[in-house]
């Protein structure tokens, strides 16, 4: 027998899961991103024991055709890109076709879905193996239930932190996704308790109120600025409202929440000397730009991106904030209307 052999699909999926599915929050992220890509206007997330026992995501989006439903669990199978050109103009959150097969390979999963036309489907899998596939009646949309995450990968299960930490991570991901998509109504319920809900009326400030509370939202100033390459909008906190970490800085590029050290720095720079050392503002900065200027295909979780014209963007962010803060000194009540 030859020494070098191709991995079985199942093993390859488990290996990919090591990158995409680090913890319960990564499952939540991938499932909710799929729901967003499916044009949902309402996404409900139910979790139990911080997601380790159960994660259920219910959306009212496009659904999956019965003929397509098993393909969704194949590796590198996606409806979102088809050609090399598409890869450079990505408008959806997903495109790698890895999440469903990866998550399915390390959990017990059921998927119920309907496009609203013809028969819907029900699929049940364990450890990536399809155990059942049958027709199913459901209103238009998709309901995915992930149970007993990492039941077959004990090493990964050990790596998971305390329930409290995992829950905080899930909350954090939903916060960012909800702020990135104020036109979608989100609801997060943990062990029967509602943790968050947003109205989905399209207003970022309302979404901030749903997430950080009305009092906080009232202390956020609108920003707006554009040049030939970038259009910036969003909200930043008054200098009096700060936190001890950068965790409350959210940068959203073309609808995708990303992490970027330099852009965080630009936000802080926009405040000049108005912040105390070691304190950081809250900010939700939405950047719209030509997808050609941003490479999202850097890391499997797609939270790190490579930006062309990064310096230009930094300057624009800092100046948008500077401007909003100096106007605020002239019109002190600009922030409070909600
Ligand atoms: P990707 O999102 O990168 O395409 P996934 O593995 O996350 O890959 O999903 C595979 C495919 O399954 C998607 O391309 C999409 O067609 C379909 N899909 C997954 N989740 C949903 C959903 N909630 N609603 C509609 N279609 C979905
Ligand atoms: Mg996806």
Automatic annotation (TrEMBL):
Source lineage: Bacteria, Bacillati, Bacillota, Bacilli, Lactobacillales
An annotated Gene Ontology molecular function: mismatched DNA binding
Protein name (Swiss-Prot/TrEMBL): DNA mismatch repair protein MutL
Keyword DNA-binding found: no
Record GO biological process: mismatch repair
Family: Belongs to the DNA mismatch repair MutL/HexB family.
Residue ranges of every copy of the DNA mismatch repair protein S5 domain listed in the record: 208-326
Protein task: This protein is involved in the repair of mismatches in DNA. It is required for dam-dependent methyl-directed DNA mismatch repair. May act as a 'molecular matchmaker', a protein that promotes the formation of a stable complex between two or more DNA-binding proteins in an ATP-dependent manner without itself being part of a final effector complex. This protein is involved in the repair of mismatches in DNA. The hex system is nick-directed.
Keyword list, A-Z: DNA damage, DNA repair, Endonuclease, Hydrolase, Nuclease
Keyword Protease: no
Record organism: Vagococcus allomyrinae
GO cellular component, one term: mismatch repair complex
């Amino acid at each position: 027998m030859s020494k070098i052999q191709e991995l079985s699909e199942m093993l390859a999926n488990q290996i990919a899961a090591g990158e995409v599915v680090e913890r319960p929050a990564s499952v939540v992220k991938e499932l909710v991103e799929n729901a967003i890509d499916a044009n949902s206007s309402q996404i409900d997330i139910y979790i139990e024991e911080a997601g380790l026992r159960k994660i259920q995501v219910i959306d009212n989006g496009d659904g999956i055709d019965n003929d397509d439903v098993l393909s969704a669990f194949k590796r590198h199978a996606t409806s979102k890109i088809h050609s090399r050109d598409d890869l450079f103009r990505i408008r959806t959150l997903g495109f790698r076709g890895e999440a469903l097969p990866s998550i399915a390979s390390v959990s017990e999963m059921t998927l119920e879905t309907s496009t609203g036309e013809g028969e819907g489907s029900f699929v049940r899998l364990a450890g990536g193996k399809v155990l059942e596939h049958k027709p199913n009646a459901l209103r238009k949309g998709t309901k995915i239930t992930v149970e007993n995450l990492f039941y077959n990968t004990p090493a990964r299960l050990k790596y998971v932190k305390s329930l409290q930490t995992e829950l905080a991570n899930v909350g954090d991901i939903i916060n960012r996704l909800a702020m990135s998509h104020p036109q979608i109504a989100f609801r997060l319920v943990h062990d029967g308790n509602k943790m968050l809900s947003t109205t989905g009326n399209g207003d970022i400030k309302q979404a901030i109120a749903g997430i950080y509370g009305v009092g906080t939202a009232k202390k956020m100033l609108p920003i707006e600025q554009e040049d030939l390459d970038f259009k910036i909008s969003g909200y930043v906190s008054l200098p009096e409202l700060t936190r001890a970490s950068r965790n409350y800085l959210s940068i959203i590029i073309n609808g995708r929440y990303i992490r970027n050290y330099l852009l965080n720095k630009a936000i802080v720079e926009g405040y000049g000397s108005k912040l105390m050392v070691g304190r950081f503002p809250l900010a939700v900065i939405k950047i719209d730009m030509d997808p050609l200027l941003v490479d999202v295909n850097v890391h499997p979780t797609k939270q790190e991106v490579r930006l062309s014209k990064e310096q230009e963007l930094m300057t624009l962010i800092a100046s948008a904030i500077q401007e909003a803060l100096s106007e605020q000194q002239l019109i002190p009540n600009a922030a409070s209307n909600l």
